[in-house]
Write a structure and sequence with these properties.
globular; mainly alpha; 7 helices
Amino acid sequence: MRYPLGEYEKDKITSKTGKKLTDITLDEILKDHIGPDDIKISKEMLRAQGQVAKEAGNDPMEKNFERASELVDVPDDVILKMYDKLRPNRSTKLELVMMAKELLEKYGAKNCAKLVMEAAEVYEKRGILL
């Protein structure tokens, strides 16, 4: 895929629900044919952007896109809770471990779980846990 995907790969871009980018129009929204999930990005598109980043030599960005793809199926309230818990002095180590466990076991978000566990270890060393 060529970047920017929205310019060069328009016909291949799909939403979380499988709608094509070209089918998401103002007219379709006004007809109530497009819902909130229809405008959310799909795992596949996030992975495709990660591949573009990797091919450009930006491995850290590729890892960010991979983690983002894992979060597509995680409810918004869980994501917000995770970000809140990842703020310094907002969580105990056990709370972060439990968050990582939930991400891994309930949502299969192994890279996100790993990131939360790494944060728990770093926060403990820096003394920024509750």
